[in-house]
Amino acid sequence: MTAADLAAELEVSVRTVYRDVEALHASGVPLYGDAGHSGGYQLVAGYRTRLTGLSAPEAEALFLSGVPGPAAELGLGSALAAAQLKLSAALPPEMRAQADRMRSRFHLDAPGWYAEDADVPHLPQVADAVWRSRVLDVRYRRWKEPTDVDRRLEPYGLVLKAGRWYIVAGPGPRTYRVDQILGVTVRDEEFEPPEEFDLAGYWARYQAEFHARRFQGEAVVRVSPQAASRLTGAAAQALAATGTAEPDGWTRAVLPIESLDHAHGTFLALGAEIEVLGPPELRARLAETSRAMAAHYTSG
Questions:
Q1: Looking at residue 31, what is its pLDDT?
Q2: SS3 of 206, please?
Q3: pLDDT value at 24 more than 60
Q4: Among 250, 213, 247, 219, which residue's Cα sits nearest to residue 235?
Q5: Alpha helices in 192-232, H assignment, sequence order
Q6: How far apart are CA 270 and CA 265, in angstroms?
Q7: Angle formed by the axes of helices 93-105 and 77-90, to 10°?
Q8: Other CB atoms closer than 10 Å to residue 266's CB: what's the count?
Q9: Distance CA 182, CA 137 (A)
């Protein structure tokens, strides 16, 4: 088949066919092409993939990587189940038993304990547009005014982070939460992602920039051993990096804070097990709140 024929059959661009052919060559698939009017790509006669070439750890890893929840959200739940059945049937009996044992003893549950399942009714349409490189018109809800806006997106890829789906899309690119899409229309308009775009690389940079933007200041605190044991994430890391022990058994440290409002709520949750030394405005707000709370419990 010619590159044009393959592109039409697979509903992708000719450029994508060329790229995929190069990838197949690199992975050892004996695909070759003949130039000319009657030329095209074809496999070496008799070539077959060999699932029996999988090692036992490889077969176990394939079944361990199955994520039925996200697959179902993408509309691929039945396809994933069928693929696992076919793969299992193709394995030698001893390897099939090892894979089944792996699947029965390990279960992946990605979302956090206190995160509710997000409703993503438009995820299958978005995923289809990502796969077929189709432009999207979306109605999107954001946090600032005006909250509901219209956007034209060129979807480069989808990311599943802690149980929440994100779409990375041009122009930009920028990142959008799929559960905040209120409506979507798939255009009959194809696009090509930039050649240099790498989804995994973009997401790594996006996370680094997010964490850099997240913490806007610092607070100097004293924490008891009980409070120290309750700190998590960046606060726990900062405690380990900057903490100095004091004679009374408490620890003085410099902790990152997102904002005065956020720090006020976070530190209040630690009660009398923390003392905020600075900044002065945060200490003053906590003192005022503490006096108001005390008044509630001491008034007649």
A1: 84
A2: helix
A3: yes
A4: 219
A5: 199-214, 225-230
A6: 9
A7: 140
A8: 16
A9: 11
Whether the model pTM is above 0.70: no
- The whole-angstrom separation of Cα 34 and Cα 22 is 15
- Mention every residue, 6+ apart, whose C-beta is less than 8 A from residue 82: none
Predicted pLDDT of residue 285: 96
The percentage of the chain sitting over the pLDDT mark of 90, rounded to a whole number, equals 51
Q: Is the pLDDT of residue 165 over 80?
A: yes
- Looking at residue 94, its pLDDT comes to 76
* Distance, CA of 149 to CA of 138 (rounded, Å): 8
Sign of CA dihedral 88, 93, 95, 100: positive
218 falls in which pLDDT band (50, 70, 90)? very high
CA–CA distance, 184 with 43 (Å, rounded to integer): 40
Q: What is the pLDDT averaged over residues 251-258? A: 95
φ/ψ region of 174 (left if φ > 0, alpha if ψ in -120 to 50, else beta) reads beta
- Start-to-end C-alpha separation, the chain: 89
Q: Which residue type does 207 have?
A: Q
**What value, to the nearest 5°, has the Cα angle with vertex 129 and ends 125 and 133?**
175
Cβ(95)–Cβ(59) below 8 Å: yes
Q: Which residues of 220-249 are buried (b: 16+ CB within 10 A; e: fewer)?
A: bbbbbeebbeebeeebeebbeeebeeeeee
Token pair recorded at residue 203 = 């997401």
